TrEMBL record:
Record's subunit section: Forms homodimer.
Name of protein: Glucose-6-phosphate 1-dehydrogenase
GO cellular component: cytosol
Keyword Metal-binding: no
Matching SUPFAM superfamilies: Glyceraldehyde-3-phosphate dehydrogenase-like, C-terminal domain, NAD(P)-binding Rossmann-fold domains
Family to which this protein belongs: Belongs to the glucose-6-phosphate dehydrogenase family.
EC identifiers of the protein: 1.1.1.49
Reactions it catalyzes: D-glucose 6-phosphate + NADP(+) = 6-phospho-D-glucono-1,5-lactone + NADPH + H(+)
Function of the molecule: Catalyzes the rate-limiting step of the oxidative pentose-phosphate pathway, which represents a route for the dissimilation of carbohydrates besides glycolysis. The main function of this enzyme is to provide reducing power (NADPH) and pentose phosphates for fatty acid and nucleic acid synthesis which are involved in membrane synthesis and cell division.
Protein species of origin: Capsella rubella
Gene Ontology MF terms in the entry: glucose-6-phosphate dehydrogenase activity; NADP binding
Localization, UniProt: Cytoplasm
NCBIfam families reported for this sequence: zwf
Pathway: Carbohydrate degradation; pentose phosphate pathway; D-ribulose 5-phosphate from D-glucose 6-phosphate (oxidative stage): step 1/3
Amino acid sequence: PETGCLSIVVLGASGDLAKKKTFPALFNLYRQGFLNPDEVHIFGYARTKISDEELRDRIRGYLVDEKNAEQAEALSKFLQLVKYVSGPYDSEEGFQRLDHAISEHEIAKNSSEGSSRRLFYLALPPSVYPSVCKMIKTCCMNKSDLGGWTRIVVEKPFGKDLESAEQLSSQIGELFDESQIYRIDHYLGKELVQNMLVLRFANRFFLPLWNRDNIENVQIVFREDFGTEGRGGYFDEYGIIRDIIQNHLLQVLCLIAMEKPISLKPEHIRDEKVKVLQSVVPISDDEVVLGQYQGYRDDPTVPNDSNTPTFATTILRIHNERWEGVPFILKAGKALNSRKAEIRIQFKDVPGDIFRCQKQGRNEFVIRLQPSEAMYMKLTVKQPGLEMNTVQSELDLSYGQRYQGVAIPEAYERLILDTIKGDQQHFVRRDELKVAWEIFTPLLHRIDRGEVKSIPYKQGSRGPKEADQLLEKAGYLQTHGY
Ligand code: BG6
């Protein structure tokens, strides 16, 4: 592993994302020994004028269960590594002060023989990315003659449509090389998402089945049982397609549908993802159902006539030899009846079914990303007993049982560690992002113009009934208990 001074700068340090995700992930990495206190310093940067101690107070509560004594001790050591610099996002003066603070740390900790590594995490809205990147480039690059690097991590939403995303990409691309830019999609850090390639390409079972001859439909579902709580202003500008489907669910689709990469090199994997995205055909309006939960507009930051969807079901179709004719149903919604993210792969009926058991349900392979990570396969077996009856049962690999006591890392922990190691496999490449926007932009523009309407649905429900009807039309067979 690389050694030398490591400075991690969290820009937008007092924001929601930094407090809830970035700092907790950094703390967990520290606790597990991945951040060496002799090398690491963490800097928060934001506009708010507060002291180091005030920043520590603001994040402390998000990092640990205070009652856990072991964690409490680690916490106080960790917080000593956290410093704060305040300043605007568009002034050289602020970033010069930041650079000065980083350099001081480098001089103190370095390592005359060490290189210096600078990681900038932009926990900020995309509107300030260009100016922040420019400031980093002008004032804060690694200057060590002894090597090292400067990397930047950017969060979604990366643009609002194809044009704005491309503009943002060019602006940042002029300042940084693609190898320095880490576009985070935290779904790529989830355990069962990372398992997809292994599952598909290390198991003989799946190889011959994974295609249009055997698979009837694929469903990728995200549900949340809470609304936009406190984020109405942000959300209303983006909606569920930009917030969840165009990135998180589409990334999952890539891993399900892509061809086998020639190796595990990040570029080879990302090449295959781009290819499958390029095979997606334009979305047709009659394969889209939008919804908005009742009460969404009560948020004072949401306009009274908002058409922004908080729910969407869309069908994507992939025009290639493997997937022609197989609907990929992407569904996401807020304020629904449960919190769950899963992939459901439904297989075709058995031809000439002598048991006449189809009504019991099809073979279905379910990968539950969260909560309670699991994979299970629904299959038909003989009901135990004297009679020759059939019943649907499950081959079940529930991680909580099978891997008892194994802690599953948080997505952000893994991904931040990858940025430090310089592994871009689980990050979105520029051309991948471009195709992702190409797929959704025409639909998004039609929604923005009010040409596709959101249907109201009750909070705590399954979403609009029209979405279930669309699923049925696409050939999805509702099974018991779903
Ligand atoms: C974020 C979205 O990217 O993902 C949020 O902006 C959403 O709206 C969140 O709540 C869901 O993440 P997870 O990991 O809880 O499924």
